[in-house]
């Protein structure tokens, strides 16, 4: 795409943007200083879709009007309410509908899935993660290793970028598996690395895991709603994601999980059971014996919190209306424009550690100019009513989100960054 460094160009792009109407379907935060906010933090907490508000209000009303009868007798009975997420989750992850389920929150799902898929033996007990893994994932796997009676230091292997690089190279993972594969029980890796924004070659990770006899789990927190995926074909054993980042379902909203079809039937695995994993047709017979539900629903435990599920349903409907192909196409252009502006204007002062050939929305900017303090620059940007986010030790993450950010937002970000740098 051809880019220009002027507002008229950005506004002209917005006029011909096929998704331009979607910006109006989101609520933007209040201005901190009277000027329009430039919100670039959808990778951390997506903006509120008006449809999410509507769907929550509907369930509050149903609760009021129907009380206990809402389980079976409202427009969208709570007994099967979680199924309203299935088509959206399946479309965004490239899964079969039977392979996905909305339940719990992300770290909880990682633990529940590891209960099934991390079954260490004395010969094969290690877990491989990447060295900059999100802390919650690291805490989850080290505690799993300990819970099974193994030493968390020797039981944890880390895929690390080479010295002086920030990119994770697939060939390095391959070499690690070649050397240690037989002792590794599980690979738990992200779809998109949260700090650098690198899209991991998930198909290759799944192939390598299979080849070496390791279970594969993917954490899709930064991938879902951001990049295209084909989970059924890639065939990780399991995956999990939260819904408050690019999925815009609100803080702590109900998360999602994927279990590949090959593990769903016949039942060949252990799970931790609760009554919502029991076959729905006979659940309320309250039998002492457990009849498993089909598909990923078998991993459900409790009746789900409807008020935290309703915004997920609303948000997924927005994605379905926009169409993910169009979302991704605009995302490439928007992020491309931001990258181009940053290089053109500040190439020698600001760098980007996100690989151009493997990225979604997010750019992870680093300050190259030794005269500029990165955290102070970030603080100045916030004062100018920009919302990026800061990740220790030195990265400013910015994510122009195609559903609600505009080309003019990206241009305005560059303008405010210029102001912030001038005062550095
Ligand atoms: C955001 C994120 C989490 C957050 O976990 P919660 O259980 O939702 O609090 C965990 N892992 C990764 C990789 C994330 O990006």
Please describe what this structure looks like.
By secondary structure, the chain is α/β, with parallel strands linked by helices. It has two domains: 7-30 and 324-422, Alpha-Beta Complex (Aspartate Aminotransferase, domain 1); 56-321, Aspartate Aminotransferase, domain 2, CATH 3.40.640. The chain contains 15 helices and 15 strands. Helix 10 links the parallel strand 8 (215-219) and strand 9 (238-241). Helix 2 (50-66) packs antiparallel against helix 12 and helix 13 packs parallel to helix 15 (407-422). The model has no long low-confidence stretch (mean pLDDT 96). Residues 105-107, 134, 136-137, 190, 194, 219, 221-222, 242 line the site of pyridoxal-5'-phosphate (PLP).
List keywords for this structure.
15 strands, 15 helices, 424 residues, Aspartate Aminotransferase, domain 2, four-stranded antiparallel beta sheet, binds pyridoxal-5'-phosphate, alpha/beta
The CATH superfamily of the largest domain is known as Type I PLP-dependent aspartate aminotransferase-like (Major domain)
Structural class: alpha/beta
- Report the sheet-strand fraction: 5-15%
Secondary-structure arrangement, i.e. CATH architecture of the largest domain: 3-Layer(aba) Sandwich
**Span of the ends, CA to CA:** 32 Å
- Global Rg: 22 Å
Associated small molecules: pyridoxal-5'-phosphate
The helix content, as a percent range, equals 25-40%
State the CATH class of the largest domain.
Alpha Beta
The SSE order reads HEEEHHHEHEHHEHEHEHEEHHHEEHEEEH
Mean pLDDT: 96
Strand order of the largest sheet: 4-10-9-8-7-5-6
Low-confidence stretches: none
Largest sheet: 7 strands, mixed
Number of helices: 15
Q: What fold name stands as the CATH topology of the largest domain?
A: Aspartate Aminotransferase, domain 2
Please give the domain count.
2
